[in-house]
């Protein structure tokens, strides 16, 4: 298919020149030779035009039309999908604004939760032993721990020591043992941590996708759907 233009451009003129040479050698240089040469040239020209038309209306023509159609479609699609740099920048700014707003909302939620969580002062066994049964019961009540069935003072002391569970002796965030007088924050799941440790932990969750939750049991501090 692609050799045909080369044939038309190179082979046919050479063929015409050969025919003219043969006619001249037979008929001489008279008017008959000129007439025959013109007839041959006209016929070859007509054949060339016909062949070009056939070629354009068949494979090559179809290929060209297909390429043109595809190019127009591609150009239209690219133009439709392209965005002005100003539009892209505006969309990015809107996305950043939404993200900042969501973080601020999460921050406000966490702060609100922290303000409602109770705090307690760590007391060692020796310190608890010095309290009266009434004071021990008050501490249990503040931590929403039932003292029903506790008859002896020592039972109240054990209740308080067991209240923190695995977090009752040390802070699981900084991994340091509690000392007498340390202030801890008590979560709804009853786990406790140094105030500064748990506050920093929970507030850091407002900057990422992690929901504010207890580091030990992963109990969420936010109401469902928040």
Question: Could you describe the 3D structure shown?
Answer:
The chain is rod-shaped. With 226 residues, it is mainly α. Helix 1 packs antiparallel against helix 2 (31-57) and helix 6 (133-142) runs parallel beside helix 7. Strand 2 and strand 3 form a beta hairpin. A 3-stranded antiparallel beta sheet has the order 1-2-3, covered by helices on one side. It has helices at 4-27, 31-57, 59-81, 85-116, 125-129, 133-142, 153-163, 195-204; strands spanning 119-121, 183-186, 192-194. It folds into 2 domains: 4-69; 104-207, Herpes Virus-1 (2-Layer Sandwich). The chain contains 8 helices and 3 strands. The two termini are 70 Å apart. Pfam families: zf-RING_2 (PF13639). Keywords: Membrane, Metal-binding, Transmembrane, Transmembrane helix, Zinc, Zinc-finger. Residues 76-101 are annotated as: Disordered.
């Amino acid at each position: 298919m692609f050799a045909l233009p080369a044939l038309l451009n190179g082979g046919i003129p050479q063929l015409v020149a050969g025919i003219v040479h043969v006619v001249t050698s037979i008929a001489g240089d008279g008017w008959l030779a000129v007439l025959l040469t013109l007839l041959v040239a006209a016929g070859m020209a007509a054949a060339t035009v016909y062949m070009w038309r056939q070629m354009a209306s068949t494979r090559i023509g179809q290929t060209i039309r297909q390429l043109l159609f595809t190019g127009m479609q591609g150009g239209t699609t690219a133009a439709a999908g392209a965005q002005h740099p100003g539009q892209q920048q505006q969309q990015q700014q809107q996305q950043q604004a939404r993200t900042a707003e969501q973080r601020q909302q999460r921050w406000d939620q966490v702060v609100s939760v922290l303000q409602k969580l109770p705090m307690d002062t760590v007391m060692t066994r020796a310190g608890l032993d010095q309290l009266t049964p009434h004071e021990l019961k008050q501490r249990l009540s503040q931590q929403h721990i039932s003292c029903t069935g506790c008859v002896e003072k020592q039972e109240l002391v054990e209740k308080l020591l067991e209240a923190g569970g695995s977090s009752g002796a040390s802070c699981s965030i900084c991994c340091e043992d509690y000392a007498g007088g340390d202030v801890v924050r008590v979560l709804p799941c009853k786990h406790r941590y140094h105030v500064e440790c748990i506050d920093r932990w929970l507030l850091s969750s407002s900057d990422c996708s992690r929901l504010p939750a207890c580091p030990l049991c992963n109990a969420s501090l936010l109401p469902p759907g928040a």
